[in-house]
Amino acid sequence: MDSALALILLCSLLDSVLPKSIKGVLSSTQTQGESEDYYSTIMNENKECRILLIQGDIAIKISRSSSNGLWKKSTDGKVYVPYKIGNEYNSDEVTAIVSAMNIYSTLTCIQFTPQTSENDFISISSSDGCWSYIGMQGGAQEVSIQKGGCVTQGIILHELNHAIGFAHEHCRNDRDNYVEIMYRYISPGDVINFDKMETNNIGLMYDYLSIMHYAPWMFSNTTGKNTIVPTPNPNVPIGMGSLLTNLDIAKINKLYGCDFCSSVSITPSGTITSPNYQNAQCVWLIQTPSGQVSMKFNAFAIQSSSDCTSNYIRIYDGPSRSSTVLLDKECGMNIPPPVISSTNQMLVEFISDNSQTGSGFTASYNTDFTDCDQLLFGSQFNLLLRPPRSI
């Protein structure tokens, strides 16, 4: 009997005879935890900090760097930021730091690379809190990620974003167009934390959910009263999460002049469509609130080449290119089979050269699928029903 047919029959049998509790095991998922209160952690960890900080976590140097604060762009279009991680971290903590760095490598032109002989690099250590300087300072530039509370994805991304040149969103020079600072709930000694800065907004919008945005209650001296209120709609949610937002990503790429298209989707379902232009290098990071991600192609026409070397789509079972490959380089006219991730994260990569002739692809994703879907199209079976590639 054909293996695919046998699996379909087995799936139908299981669906009819297995109790729900057992079938639930077949579709067990890794859920994303509730959003953490990152700024409370930062403030708590920085209480005994030995160096001068402003706005809670920005370190200040007495002498200013002679550079413009940007890391140098390489001739290949990427921005390499050398780093060194202190020996005080255990393997899990190192993995957390490197994983956060990989988000930049996946979604932007910023490439964090281990320091070898470079004179300018960031030195990540468990110093005394969660803090960073803004932009490249020159030499061994400290970024403090204290063991314990600071070693979380949201905080690591926040401090790294300072290190590559970004200030807090609420301190943009145009912030009064977007938020009102409630000074009556701020003690005189804390007002400095809300001073506007001379920022380069690079023509992009204010981002209430930026990884760089303060929580609404920061430095409030009155319980239940917020210090930052969005305008004109005070109910707009604000404050950093655990991921770079699409605007964060766009700002990084525009600040460094990088031709890179990428986006993050955090909704339970959605659609992605490839851009119909040449020389595309695009990625979509899907991170649903919980469950697993199921992706189905609705249209597929990517120019064929030998082994799909020039134009292709590739799907990873996780948030970066180092994750397990769910669907390897795929091109041609045949619609690939659906794929299902093992967690709530999936990365889709699309590459095209300057001779692209296909119309690209459209795919939809969701977290609502059956046990049979998982058996047929989960990572261990996603190649089973693949049609022959058209060349």
TrEMBL record:
Active site per the UniProt annotation: E159
PROSITE patterns (alphabetical): ASTACIN, CUB
Cofactor binding, note field: Binds 1 zinc ion per subunit.
Location of the CUB domain: 261-368
Pfam families on file: Astacin, CUB
Enzyme Commission code: 3.4.24.-
Residues annotated to bind Zn(2+): H158, H162, H168
Keyword field contains Cell membrane: no
Cofactor(s), by name: Zn(2+)
Domain Peptidase M12A: 58-262
Residues making up the signal peptide according to the UniProt record: 1-19
CDD domains per record: CUB
Family matches, as InterPro entries: CUB_dom, MetalloPept_cat_dom_sf, Peptidase_M12A, Peptidase_Metallo, Sperma_CUB_dom_sf
GO cellular component, one term: cortical granule
Predominant subcellular localization, coarse grouping: cytoplasm
Top enzyme class: hydrolase
GO biological process, any: proteolysis
Keyword Disulfide bond part of the UniProt annotation: yes
GO molecular function, a single term: zinc ion binding
Keywords of this entry: Cytoplasm, Disulfide bond, Hydrolase, Metal-binding, Metalloprotease, Protease, Signal, Zinc
Subcellular location: Cytoplasmic vesicle, Secretory vesicle, Cortical granule
Protein name: Metalloendopeptidase
Organism: Hymenochirus boettgeri
